Amino acid sequence: MTFRATRVILASVFLFIGASVSAQQADRKHVPITIEDVLRQQAAATPSKSSIDLNDRLRAMSGATRFSQDYLLGPGDIIEVTVYGVEDLKKKELTLDSDGKISLPFINSVQLIGLTPRESEVKICTLYEASVIKNPQVSVSVKEYRSQFINVLGAVLKPGTYQLTRRVFLVDALAMAGGLLAAKAESKAYVHRAAMGQPSNDKAETSTETRESLEIDLVQLLERGDIGLNIPIYAGDVISVPEKVERFFYVLGDVNKAGAFELRKGESISVKQAIASAGGLMPTAKAKKTSILRQNADGTTTQIAMDVSKLLKGEVPDTILTQNDVVFVPGSTTKTISHGILSSIGNVLAAFIYVGVQ
User: Most buried among 86, 91, 264, 274, by the most CB within 10 A?
Assistant: First the structure.
């Protein structure tokens, strides 16, 4: 038998093994990626258009609702009140107490919590007109905002606590936090808010306060413009954008279905299974020169040599892959890939997973 015939037979065996095992893993998530894709991404080194568009859309929606929204007063806020014709009330600074009340001459305690400055003017005007002054002119403005805070957490640019100075909606809260981290953010957000529940019959439970959680589809809101999902945000709300929990391994080079493959929670994937997921080796593959590229905690990359031709024949032990491992199979179509590119290849793959290269 000639060398060429032997090589053809071996290639056929590899393809058969790959196809048979791959059929058992047809439901595994796969994002096609080629070496050419990686090289283009390294050369471009620019943020993905999708991430830019998403945050631009968020900021645009936030700006569109901002002009018409007024701040709701709360405990601790300092307001400036003027009642024209009342000497003691010329730009008088007052602080809302813990119940959201202020004290004014002649009409005593006034409840302002939950009212806008304009609504407060109307209420004070009505009270004075009923007992003190005919057609009073009242002015109320916020001097210091102290009562209303929200928290924005998770995959946003600047997670933290933010003071509300006006009525806000979900897109406003996300914009306050600098927008989404495109490469990490899930396509949903959760709004957790305190809600008063029904009294419990359980004597051990003394508080009736429960926490309500709302799930918002950010794709539906930001890309499809479903403004019904742009819900109002109130003091004490916690907005969280979860980070993606998808885990991948990669098979690149001279395989039939190169790309990123889902690594399910609790599952172990070997090199042989990884190659099967990629549809097996191409006839041009240099199986003896296969490498596993593994990123270390310190940012360096370890390159592990693997003779896949012996592996598929059972002559060498298999190797279990870890998250983000890259199995690289060289061949005639990838013979120009340098060692330097191999060492840095893992640093750009996450961008492809977010964009979803097809």
Answer: 274
